[in-house]
Amino acid sequence: MEETRQIIMDAVIDQFNQKGMKFTMDDISKELHISKKTIYREFDDKDELFFATVDYGFSAVKKKEAEILADESLGLIEKISKLIVCLPDNYKNIDFRRVYQLKEKYPKVYMKIAEKVESDWGETVKLLNQAMDEGLIKRVPIELIKLMVEGAIEKFLSSEELANSQYSYEESLNMMINVLINGIKA
Predict the structure, then answer these.
(1) C-alpha to C-alpha distance for 101 and 110, rounded to whole angstroms
(2) CATH number for the domain formed by residue range(s) 44-182
(3) For residue range 117-134, what is the model confidence (pLDDT) as tens digits?
(4) pLDDT band at residue 186, thresholds of 50, 70 and 90?
(5) CA distance linking residue 134 with residue 93, whole number of Å
(6) Could you tell me the residue ranges of all domains in the chain?
(7) Spatial CB neighbours of 27, under 8 Å, sequence gap ≥ 6
(8) Could you give the CA distance from residue 100 to residue 169 in angstroms, rounded to a whole number?
(9) Residue pair 110/103 in contact by the 8 Å Cβ criterion
(10) H helices within 71-159, ranges in order?
(11) Distance separating alpha carbons of residues 173 and 87, to the nearest angstrom
């Protein structure tokens, strides 16, 4: 059953990328060649499906973070950068620029995404403190760094501006972390 749920959640992501919030349960059933009844056996409604998909996505983020932390080939600054903008490989195709659409139609789902973005800074904070202690980065209040990153990500996710730009969500995250780490000085 867990495999069926995962396949359905992957289809939600595909449909979201194609149609934004305009996709239906019919679209998912057509993509997967299964009945809507099968979907509703796994999920009570679209809200439950969205909440499960958010959890599914963020569990993939946690796995990717563990890979980054365990990667001995990465330097400290590189690990910090990768952790802050962590996107699992199978989620790099998600068009996060469309997440703002959730804010109006599914505000609870949107809030869950915002909460996930703002939580679990533990490992990143440890690495930031280590980098400051080693003199690799300036001593800056960690709360300020968190607010800057969370504010940028919140803006990326909550408005149409990024969707209307030429940059993907991943490109925007990478430019944001580059500015944060290296500044804008030429």
Answers:
(1) 9
(2) 1.10.357
(3) 777 788 999 999 999 999
(4) confident
(5) 36
(6) 44-182
(7) 15, 19
(8) 12
(9) yes
(10) 76-84, 100-105, 107-118, 122-133, 142-158
(11) 10
